[in-house]
Specification:
The protein has one domain. It has 4 helices and 2 strands, in the order αββααα. It is globular and about 50 Å long. It is mostly helical. Helices cover 54% and strands 4% of the residues. The protein starts with 9 loop residues before the first helix and ends in an 11-residue tail after the last helix. A two-stranded antiparallel sheet has the order 1-2.
C-alpha cells in the first residue's frame, strides 16, 4: 500500500509511479519515440532515477538489463527508464514475498 493505494502487481505500481513507456500515436507524427508517462509522484521518480544510476553500476540484474538495451540500440535515457522500472519490480517482489533480495536469483 502506497499513499492509500493497494497494488496487486509490480506493473500496477510502475504505472502509478509513471514508469511505463507511452508511444506517441497522434495524426501523422507516428515517428516519435516512446517516453515515460510521468504520471504520479515526481519526487519518487527522482529517487528512482538516482537509484537506477547506482544500480546500473552495482546491481547485476539492473546492469544486465541496461547493457542489453544499449546493445539493441536504445538510447541511454530509455534504458535508464527501464532500469528504474526494473528496480520497482525488484522492490515489489521483496516486499510481497517478505524475503531478502538475492542477487544470484535466477528464474528456473
Amino acid at each position: 500500500v502506497m499513499h492509500n493505494h493497494h497494488f496487486n502487481s509490480a506493473e500496477q505500481l510502475a504505472a502509478y509511479l509513471g514508469l511505463v513507456p507511452i508511444e506517441r500515436q497522434s495524426g501523422t507524427s507516428l515517428l516519435g519515440r516512446a517516453r515515460l508517462s510521468k504520471n504520479g509522484p515526481a519526487r519518487l521518480r527522482a529517487v528512482l532515477y538516482m537509484a537506477a544510476m547506482v544500480g546500473i553500476k552495482h546491481n547485476p540484474h539492473v546492469k544486465a538489463l541496461y547493457e542489453r538495451l544499449l546493445v539493441k540500440g536504445k538510447s541511454k535515457m530509455s534504458a535508464l527508464g527501464a532500469a528504474m522500472r526494473k528496480l520497482v519490480h525488484l522492490c515489489f517482489g521483496v516486499l510481497k514475498t517478505q524475503k531478502k533480495y538475492q542477487a544470484e536469483y535466477q528464474n528456473a
